[in-house]
Amino acid sequence: AQNKEFVCRGHDYERLEAFQQRMLNEFPHAIAMQHANQPDETIFQAEAQYLQIYAVTPIPENQEVLQRDGIPDNIKSFYKVNHIWRFRYDRPFHKGTKDKENEFKSLWVERTTLILMQSLPGISRWFEVEKREVVEMSPLENAIEVLENKNQQLRTLISQCQTRQMQNINPLTMCLNGVIDAAVNGGVARYQEAFFVKEYILNHPEDGEKITRLRELMLEQAQILEFGLAVHEKVVPQDMRPLHKKLVDQFFVMKSSLGI
């Protein structure tokens, strides 16, 4: 079918490279496009056959199931990838002059949402895209979403650790380490320099609520980390005590940089 777009569900645990190879074997004359950008008109008009393959993220319909406490994780993970109509992919890009010291300032995201005719998975493993919507997210909106997702991930890992659903605590250790490390190595300061300075606030009067939201999320993250470290302390094995102590020390540095 010419100039059509489909969302396809790969095999279980199939990597993107393997899926691409499988599709190219099915269409031996096709030219593989190496990027996810919207193709230009010459490609739409071309006689040759082109295949553009990229990964998309499912957007679950049942948000309330996913956010409600007390629902088992296996049910949540089912709803994350089943009965899905909408999928999306993000393309980061820089607008205006890029600050080498602080890339957050100019980092926009072009978000494309694909809406299917039927929900996946269905009778078939692939369905045609009925319509696509493209929006641009500003650097501030992007920062808010990154923090919301990270806070949610931390909460989930902490609760799995508390309810002993986690066989080993490595995922929690790695997540705490990643967040605290990023914050101490300038993450917090970069956000503050980008969005909390007078210059930004005066130039973007419409962003008042969003700036407040970002500040709330940063403070909320500090609370989640504090609680997460307390849970971690109870379950951390002897050989990982030094790492735990390093995390606690770094966390205090992070808190002071937030002005808590």
What do you see in this structure?
- With 260 residues, the protein is an alpha+beta fold.
- It has two domains: 1-137, no CATH class; 139-258, Up-down Bundle (Methane Monooxygenase Hydroxylase, Chain G, domain 1), CATH 1.20.58.740.
- It is built from nine helices and seven strands.
- It has helices at 16-26, 41-45, 63-67, 73-81, 139-162, 170-195, 198-203, 208-235, 241-258; strands spanning 6-8, 31-33, 50-52, 57-59, 84-94, 107-120, 126-137.
- It has a five-stranded antiparallel beta sheet with strand order 1-7-6-5-4.
- Helix 8 (208-235) runs antiparallel to helix 9.
- It is globular.
- It starts with 5 loop residues before the first strand and ends with a helix.
- The mean pLDDT is 90.
- GO terms for molecular function: guanyl-nucleotide exchange factor activity; small GTPase binding.
- Belongs to the DOCK family.
- Keywords: Coiled coil.
- Residues 137-164 form a coiled coil.
- Residues 1-260 form the DOCKER domain.
How would you briefly describe this protein structure?
This protein has 260 residues and is α+β, with helices and mostly antiparallel strands. Helices cover 51% and strands 19% of the residues. The protein is built from nine helices and seven strands, in the order βαβαββααβββααααα.
- What best-fitting shape do the alpha-carbon axes yield? globular
List the strand order in the largest sheet.
1-7-6-5-4
- Tell me the β content: 15-25%
Instruction: Tally the beta strands.
Output: 7
User: Into how many domains do the coordinates divide?
Assistant: 2
What integer value in Å does the Rg equal?
A: 22 Å
What is the tally of helical segments?
Answer: 9
Poorly predicted regions: none
Tell me the structural class.
Answer: alpha+beta
Mean pLDDT: 90
Largest sheet: 5 strands, antiparallel
Helix content: 40-55%
Output the helix-strand order. Answer: EHEHEEHHEEEHHHHH
The rounded distance between the terminal residues' Cα atoms is 59 Å
